[in-house]
Every structure is written in structure tokens, then in C-alpha cells.
């Protein structure tokens, strides 16, 4: 009985319990035009990634990015655009370039493939909210939050972020 309880506790504290599987290898392009591969880009150091799967989530992404950049957090925005019609993807990207400060362009990524796999790996259930994920240096999920920017959530994230440094 004790072994069963210990096994259950281990399962609940594992990254999978946070609804996260390994991020599949994906190609992305920053708003600055740099081609990158995920999750390789983030390996070797803690990172916060603000994932967006809709226009509404993208709006929330901006608020999170601004707050985390003020705190000197290694934060990235990642917008999945695969479901957007190909004809409008360029317009979306140009709009994003106008919405984010130029200093953030190298840290905001557009992804055009892998939507289904990424949603499954992240456990995405709500498109309209940004998904904020804190990864440790090995790529394991330490913390996740689906929602608009809130100071209480930011404070919780910053506490964990600082513990990883």
C-alpha cells in the first residue's frame, strides 16, 4: 500500500502531471527574421515561454512579455499560426512586428507547422488564453499558467524563476 502511495505521489509531481510532454522539434522564425529550431533554442538554461494559439492569446502574450522583460527574465513569445489561412499569415506577422517593441523581435517567434503535436505536448485546452510555461535548464516543465497577465501569477513565476538561477 505504501509503495502504491509513493508511486502515485511521484506521478503527481512529475512534469507530465503539469500536462507537459516533450516539445516536438519545430522550426520557427523570429519577428527579426531569424530561423530557429525549438526546443534546441532554449536548451541549457531556464526559460519562460508564452505560447499563443489565437489572436486573443497573442494580446495576452504582449502583456506577459513586457512584464517579464522588465524583470530581466529569459522570456520568449511563441505564436502558432498554422491554423491561420496562408494568405493572411504575412499580415499577422507584420501586425505582430508593429505590436511588439523592436527590442523584443528576436524573442517573439512564429510557428507555421506542428500545431496538433504542440497542443498535445502542452496540454492546450483553451485557445483564447496565453499559456505561460517555465522550463528548467533541462527542458522540464517547472510551472505553467493559462491566463491573462496577473501580478499574483507573475510573482509566483518570478519566485520559481529565481530559484532556478
Beta-sheet strand percentage? Answer: 15-25%
Number of DSSP helical runs: 5
Strands side by side in the biggest sheet: 2-1-5-4-3-6-7
* Uncertain parts: 1-19
CATH architecture: 3-Layer(aba) Sandwich
What is the residue-mean pLDDT, rounded to a whole number?
A: 88
As for the CATH topology, it is Glutaredoxin
- Quaternary form: single chain
Number of E-type strands: 7
Number of domains: 1
Protein structure class = alpha/beta
Q: In CATH, what is the homologous superfamily?
A: Glutaredoxin
CATH class: Alpha Beta
- As a whole number of angstroms, the C-alpha radius of gyration is 16 Å
Query: What does the overall shape look like?
Result: globular
Order of helices and strands: HEEEHEHEHEEH
Percentage of helical residues? 25-40%
Largest sheet: 7 strands, mixed
Distance between the termini: 38 Å
3D structure, described in words:
This protein starts with a helix and ends with a helix. The chain has one domain (26-164): Glutaredoxin (3-Layer(aba) Sandwich). A seven-stranded mixed beta sheet has the order 2-1-5-4-3-6-7, covered by helices on one side. It contains five helices and seven strands. The chain is of the alpha/beta class. The longest helix has 16 residues, at 55-70. 30% of the residues are buried.
For the structure shown, list the relevant keywords.
165 residues; alpha/beta; Glutaredoxin; 7 strands; 39% helix
Outline the secondary-structure elements.
Blueprint: H1 2-13, E1 26-30, E2 35-38, E3 47-52, H2 55-70, E4 75-80, H3 86-99, E5 108-111, H4 115-122, E6 131-135, E7 141-146, H5 151-164
Amino acid at each position: 500500500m505504501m509503495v502504491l502511495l509513493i508511486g502515485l505521489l511521484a506521478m503527481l509531481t512529475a512534469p507530465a502531471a503539469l500536462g507537459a510532454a516533450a516539445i516536438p522539434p519545430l522550426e520557427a522564425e523570429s519577428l527579426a527574421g531569424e530561423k530557429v529550431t525549438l526546443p534546441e533554442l532554449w536548451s541549457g538554461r531556464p526559460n519562460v515561454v508564452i505560447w499563443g494559439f489565437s489572436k486573443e492569446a497573442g494580446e495576452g502574450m504582449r502583456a506577459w512579455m513586457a512584464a517579464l522583460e522588465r524583470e530581466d527574465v529569459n522570456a520568449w513569445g511563441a505564436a502558432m499560426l498554422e491554423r491561420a489561412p496562408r494568405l493572411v499569415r504575412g499580415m499577422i506577422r507584420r501586425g505582430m512586428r508593429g505590436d511588439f517593441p523592436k527590442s523584443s523581435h528576436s524573442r517573439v517567434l512564429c510557428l507555421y507547422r506542428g500545431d496538433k503535436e504542440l497542443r498535445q505536448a502542452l496540454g492546450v485546452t483553451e485557445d483564447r488564453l496565453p499559456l505561460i510555461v517555465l522550463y528548467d535548464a533541462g527542458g522540464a516543465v517547472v510551472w505553467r499558467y493559462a491566463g491573462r497577465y496577473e501580478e499574483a501569477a507573475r510573482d509566483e513565476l518570478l519566485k520559481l524563476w529565481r530559484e532556478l538561477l
